[in-house]
Amino acid sequence: MGTASKPPGKAMYVAPRPDWDWLRIVQRKLYARSEQQVDYVFCKLWGLVTDPRNLRMALARVAGNRGRRTAGVDGVTVGHVAKRVEASAVALI
Asked: Structural domain of residue 59, as residue ranges?
């Protein structure tokens, strides 16, 4: 017999749907460019990496991982980052 699994709790952070759509479009464009022009040099990737939509997506993915409560090498957990993101969003309003 197995032990009863713990019911899932409230999601720590969920990225907005437009962010998911944006990321999927960017991924498809990058893939298509790499297939069409094998020698193409991608010069604008840093802008995509640091785009707030991409960062929100990364936070949502990490927040969904099993190890989200474990602090990284900097001692910060996903919960701390999510709280900072929420505080920043409230400050903008």
From this structure: 17-92
